[in-house]
Amino acid sequence: MDIIAGLATVLGDPVLLAWVLLASVVGMIVGAIPGLTASAAIAMLLPLTFYMEPLPALAFLYVIGKSGRYGGSIAAILFNTPGTAASAATQLDGYPLARQGKAAKAMKVATISSVIGDLTGEILLIAGVAWIAAIALRLGPPELFAVYFAAFVVIGSVIGKSVVRGLASAALGILVAMVGLDPISATERFTFGSFDLTNGISLVPLMIGIFVLGEVFSQLETRQNQPALAAASPGDPSDNTLSWAEYKPCIPHVVRSSFIGAFIGMLPGLGSAIAAFVAYGEGKRRARDPQAWGRGALEGIAAPEAANNAVSGPSMAPLLTLGIPGSTIGAILIGVFLIHGIQIGPALFLTSRDLIFALFACGLIGIAMYGVIGYFGAAFVGRFITRIPAQVLYPVIFLTAFVAAYTSRGNLFDVYVMVAAGFAGWGMRKLDFNPAAFIISFVLAGGAEEAFRQSLLLSDTGLMIFVTRPIALAFLLIGVGALVLRVRRLARQRHASVQGSV
Fold first, then answer.
1. For residue 380, with 0-12 CB atoms within 10 Å meaning exposed, 13-18 middle and 19 or more buried, which class applies?
2. CB 33 within 8 A of CB 385
3. Are 425 and 210 in contact (CB under 8 A)?
4. Is-above-0.85 flag for pTM?
5. Confidence of residue 217 (pLDDT cuts 50, 70, 90)
6. Is 389 left (phi over 0), alpha (psi -120 to 50) or beta?
7. ∠ Cα 386 390 395 (to 5°)
8. Strand, coil or helix: what is 244?
9. 279-317 exposure pattern, b = at least 16 Cβ within 10 A, e = fewer
10. Among 231, 169, 224, 144, which Cα is nearest to 447's?
11. Residues 325-334: pLDDT tens digits?
């Protein structure tokens, strides 16, 4: 019933609907621009939401995240360059279809599959998030710290190619978050005598630097070393329609991949890229003709697109119930909640229940909007992207990033932080460190420190409190288990690679 009330709220507010529509279009365009991710767009637009009411602000950025994931498929199919990492699996079959003159058919499959996957994830979120929050309300500081610990380890070790670099990225995020005043003793930490640092590092310029400037630096460097992207040549117009007979074989892959994506979305840090490749691999394994995958199979587009969009809704569950973002977009949304004085966590469903279900309603409406726009207009968006010269695009992004960083607090120091973070993000990408793990750990560090200190105050046995409480011990073991499994998997991959090269 809560979601029905939420839908009534949204449908009865034309201004809110306009924000959702704008977010659907902006997210799709940004996602379709190679190298400019939805996270980068949300980070740049975050200061704009300072002046908005909480629901339009959250809905605007939330829907950009959804449509941005879908928009990445447009670039993957048309330009053989995924707009987002989550669309990398889509290009394996999407671009061969575009080369065959079937780009519109491929984009229609991507659109329908994305909508089904996203709706599945959103419905599961709506059905289960209040139940998870009720359980989370019973967790004490030791259990919460154990959840934070598991999140740090999973985020640091599972994402990326190197466990060591991933954990180092997470540790660096925690270290940067400690800059400023100690929350209990008010003593200075890592301020080096700077008054500006006593207030700590602000989240907004840090995110803009890491996600926007860092990504732009990487793209500029890559563009100097690679030839210009080539748009796919158009084929026979009759090849660009999609019939029920053509899409019917995709349905089992879409259903299975939607649940794969929803499950992975609930695990902090894994994200839509991993979901897409897991779904693609599982779909190819079960396919009637696996040899056709990679050469232009429609099922090879449907499976990853359903999975990477199904991540969107469930990834909000750990954010809303525990205050732990499941993705970089979730980490940015934390900033919006805090800016508007909304405390996230299990009590959120007691204090702001109507707001949260109205946000879910905006998500459902946003999915429908980008589905309709994408089905009929994805090809136009692709052609529009090809007409934007890089000499115009990147200066505009640079200028927007500087304005956004300054206006967040009206402080020039934040611009310095953004520039430094931009070079840091660029360096992290070059050295295979993990910017997402860095930012998510930065966001989580404050809550983890608070839970850790409260646990020690409650304990008569010091650190043993974390192993004498069953739930806390279970989460600690989950974190250690994820680390061990990841190390063993990478070791097997290296062993297989060495044997293959002999």
1. exposed
2. yes
3. yes
4. no
5. confident
6. beta
7. 135
8. helix
9. bbebbbeebeeeeebeebbbbbbbbbbbbbbbbbbbbbb
10. 144
11. 767 777 778 7
